[in-house]
Amino acid sequence: MSLSTDSLKGKVCVVTGAAKSIGLAIAVKYAEQGAKVALIDIDPLVEKSVEELVAKGYEAKSYILNITDRDAVLKCFEQIVADLGDIYALVNNAGVVDTRPFEENDEAVFEKMFKVNVYGTAYCIQGALPSMKKTGGKIINFASKSGKTGSALMGPYSAAKGAVIVLTQSLAFEYAKYGITVNSICPGITDATGVWSSVSAGYIESMGMQRDEIIEKFTAKIPLGRLTDIQDVVDFVFFLTASGEYCTGQAYNITGGREMH
Ligand SMILES: NC(=O)c1ccc[n+]([C@@H]2O[C@H](COP(=O)([O-])OP(=O)(O)OC[C@H]3O[C@@H](n4cnc5c(N)ncnc54)[C@H](O)[C@@H]3O)[C@@H](O)[C@H]2O)c1
Question: The domain 12-190+229-254 is classified under which CATH number: 3.40.50.720, 3.60.21.10, 3.90.1150.10, 3.90.950.10?
Answer without folding.
Answer: 3.40.50.720
